[in-house]
UniProtKB/TrEMBL annotation:
Residues annotated as domain TerD: 1-194
Keywords: Tellurium resistance
Transmembrane segments: none
InterPro entries on file: Stress/Tellurium_Resist, TerD
Pfam families with a match to the protein in the record: TerD (PF02342)
Species name: Mucilaginibacter pankratovii
Superkingdom of origin: Bacteria
Protein name: Tellurium resistance TerZ family protein
């Protein structure tokens, strides 16, 4: 049964058959901004560069490492980033995620207690100006969706207008079991480093 969380909800990630969650993906799909021509004639497409990132923390809430477009794999290879998409969908929504981060919990270092996902607009383009931008956190692989845990529509969500960064959600380990907190909150940050600091201070 699919779980579609709203922000602020928490769930255990043990399945109904008692099996433990193994693989998580965070996929982001977005489009280029359409600019109207002079006097409303014609239009051009402005590339949009959104960046998904993943921050790993220990049980003392100390930052261990960040997986992002400049560091595509964690040291233990359990977290992988598909690579930096600099434009978004220039020809309309193709239904395919532009960036995907995968986490293999079975390979994740035992030192990791928190796995936080954030999104930043690299060029400072307002989330509210992007024609479509959706995020989904799901079990599976980049090519297979097994179960969706949370979905966010940041292009059409009023709370995201005027912002260029947000915290998607945090997986956290409690009594040896992984759980998920769907946060879905915009922040006032401008850069990835600032957003990671906000996570450390407010969301762990």
């Amino acid at each position: 049964m699919a779980i579609n969380l709203q922000k602020g909800q928490r769930i255990s990630l043990e399945k109904s058959d008692g099996a433990k969650l193994q693989n998580i993906c965070v996929g982001i799909n977005w489009g280029a901004i359409e600019k109207k021509g002079l006097f409303g004639f014609g239009s051009t497409k402005e590339a949009v560069d959104l960046d998904a990132s993943c921050a790993l923390y220990d049980d003392q809430k100390r930052l261990l490492e960040v997986v992002y477009f400049g560091n595509l794999k964690s040291k233990d290879q359990s977290v992988r980033h598909s690579g930096d998409d600099l434009t978004g969908d220039m020809g309309g929504d193709d239904g395919i995620d532009n960036e995907v981060i995968t986490v293999d919990f079975s390979r994740l270092s035992p030192a990791v207690t928190y796995v936080a996902f954030v999104l930043n607009s690299f060029r400072g383009q307002d989330f509210g100006d992007i024609p479509f931008a959706s995020i989904r956190i799901y079990e599976g692989t980049p090519k297979r969706v097994t179960e969706i845990f949370a979905k966010y529509d940041i292009a059409n969500g009023a709370a995201f207008k005027g912002h260029v960064s947000m915290v998607l959600g945090v997986f956290y380990k409690k009594n040896g079991e992984w759980k998920f907190n769907a946060i879905g909150e915009p922040t006032k940050d401008r850069k990835l480093e600032e957003t990671v600091k906000t996570v450390t201070q407010n969301y762990l």
